[in-house]
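so im writing up the methods section and need the ferredoxin--NADP(+) reductase record in one place, dumping it here so i stop losing it
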Amino acid sequence: MDAIAPRPLQTIPPAFFGERVTWVHHWTDRLFSFRCTRDPSFRFVAGQFAMIGLMVDGKPLVRAYSVVSPPWEEELEFLSIKVQNGPLTSRLQHIQPGDTVLIGKKPTGTLLTENLLPGSTLWLLATGTGLAPFMSLIREPDVYERYERVVVCHTVREVKELAYRDYITGELPQHEFLGEILAGKLLYYPSVTREPFPTQGRITTLIESGQVFSDLGLPPLSTERDRVMLCGSEAMNADVKAMLEARGFVEGSNNAPGTYVVEKAFVTK
Ligand code: A2P
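--- predicted struct ---
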């Protein structure tokens, strides 16, 4: 009788860690989150992204994903769209606990507090999966030492795409050590564009009309006080960039801090 050959162990290319999926949550038919184990040597700063993916036909198939989890968490969490014919996400959307995912060993990115000049209010403007890096930043205690106030604005098409809404409004304020740190400092401003919702419209419109400021009881954007991080689609980034620059904001980078920073919410396939 032939012995059954053991399944060959997948060879993980040296640029990646092979990590085990521990949790998967589907928000909608277009959006899901997952967690995986984290190699102790994988270090990142809140706001960074890494190349994430799967081995496909013996080769890594990866895309840039911002880390959702804060640097102090034991595991890593990511937020992804699902595209039925997208090379990566058509596969990644089917992962289950126990599966192996690839995590690039070199996280990077510009959405870092050190790329911004000191200020008092930090605005985190996201559309869709652009919320991901901000989920990490709002759980980084250092952010609350740098800023008196942190405002997360998340715009999506439909209410159910407001991923992490219950977590931000319910669990996070009760968190054993963050709860106290962010009390009175973290403001959450969700808006929806294609369904009825208390706050409707694109963030660009809500800024232009001044509604976001009157709703939150905050003064209009000023380069003196406000710092902005921007993460959305190419079109959203371009529109908000133009609005900010018209108000005197200057883009910061890893070489020179500025009054705003921007990154594309990467994965579209
Ligand atoms: P809208 O429904 O008016 O297009 P998407 O799912 O296409 O990435 O969009 C996510 C959210 O971003 C939607 O609410 C969408 O609004 C909004 N959005 C799309 N383009 C822009 C833009 N140029 N500026 C601001 N918001 C935008």
